[in-house]
Each structure stands twice: as structure tokens, then as C-alpha cells.
Amino acid sequence: MIKKMRWIPVILVLTLVGTDVFAAGAAEGPQLGQAVSKEEIARWEISVMPDGEGLPVGKGTAKQGKSVYQTHCLSCHGKNGLGDSADQLAGAEFGLTDEYPDKTIGTYWPYATTLFDFSRRSMPMHAPGILTDNEVYAVTAFLLYLNGIIGLTDEMNAKTLAKVKMPNRDGFINVYKENQKVD
User: Fold this and answer.
1) Number of domains in the chain
2) What is the mean pLDDT of the chain?
3) Is 97 within a domain?
4) Is 131 part of a structural domain of the chain?
């Protein structure tokens, strides 16, 4: 028991010294990379919420979006969004409650704003982020048109896109419903 008692002050001292060394190292950091400017953070903070918060200025129609689609999307998603090496985006033959459901934009996605956000961040796959906001609005409109949700000349912009009621809007359980004002 006496031998164990001798180690208590040693352990206590080592713990305190180790804590000070760790705190000093944590404050200093590992010296990797470089500080990010506020401008760089703002450039990457492009989140769009289901209610349309965060949508940028811009506009586009399905008619304009057809050429954007043909240039940037056709090679992976196929003619009229029917699928190729990437997912089918339109032309669903079966609903989500059928035995073999088709998960297309029109049958699956709950918010049109999510389509805009995803497309702007992630597409085209070989060069994400190269589309202008107007091109993203236009291709979003084209995809909504292919799914029978809007007309060929309906303009999509920050106000109109947020008002699009997707067919599967109520198909998901929203655990945050009390915090959202979407509709």
C-alpha cells in the first residue's frame, strides 16, 4: 500500500505537466495548411434550404435548360434524363409504392430547391461548380419539365423555385417540422 501511495504524487505531476503540454500544443496547432479567408468561406457557403433560403440571384427556363442539359448532362444521364451510366432523372414508369419503384426527380425528390443545390454543388460530375447560377436554374427547370412538374417556359428563380410543389413533398417524415416554414 505504501508503494502505491508513492506513485500518486508522480502520477499527479505527470498528469498536470502533460495537460499543460497538450493545451499549449493544441493552441498552437499542427502547423498544417494555411488560414482560410472570409472571402473563401463565403465562396463555399452556398447552401440552399428547402424553403429557398440561400438561393442566388438568377433565372432560367426549361427551354434554356435543354441546351445546358445536352452540353453537360446528356453523356451520363441519357436522352431526356432516361438514364445511362448515371441515374435516371425522369420518365418514371413506376411509383415509389410499386414493387419495383423508379426513383426519379419527379417521384422521389421532396424539394425543387434541393435539386438546384445538388446540381450546383456536384454537377457535372467531371467538373462540379462550373455552371453559372443562370445555367443551374435553367437545367433545374428542364429537369422539372421532363418530370411534368412545370411548363417549358415557366421561369425558375429564387422566388418561383421555392414555390414548386414536388409530387413527393409529403413522402418523407420530417422530424424537424416545427422548425421549418416550407410551403
Assistant:
1) 1
2) 86
3) yes
4) yes
30, part of any domain: no
75, part of any domain: yes
Q: Which of 15-19, 24-28, 84-88 has the highest average model confidence (pLDDT)?
A: 84-88
Expressed as residue numbers, the domain containing 87 is 45-171
What is the b/e burial string over 77-113, where b = at least 16 CB atoms within 10 angstroms of the residue's CB? bbeebebeeeebbbbbeeeeeeeeebebbbbbbbbbb
pTM confidence score: 0.75
pLDDT recorded at residue 175 = 75
* pLDDT tens-place string over residues 73-109: 999 999 999 999 999 999 999 988 899 999 999 999 9
Place of cell 503540454: 21
Q: What pLDDT is recorded for position 113?
A: 98
Question: CA-CA distances (angstroms) from residue 28 to 6, 14, 121, 129?
Answer: 34, 21, 33, 34
Q: Stretch 13-41: mean pLDDT, rounded?
A: 68
Nearest to 68 by CA among 153, 130, 139: 139
CATH number at residue 93: 1.10.760.10
Among 70, 71, 72, 76, CA closest to 89? 76
Would you give the DSSP letter of residue 124?
S
Number of Cβ atoms within 10 Å of the Cβ of 136: 26
Give one word for 129, left, alpha or beta, with left for phi > 0 and alpha for psi -120 to 50.
left
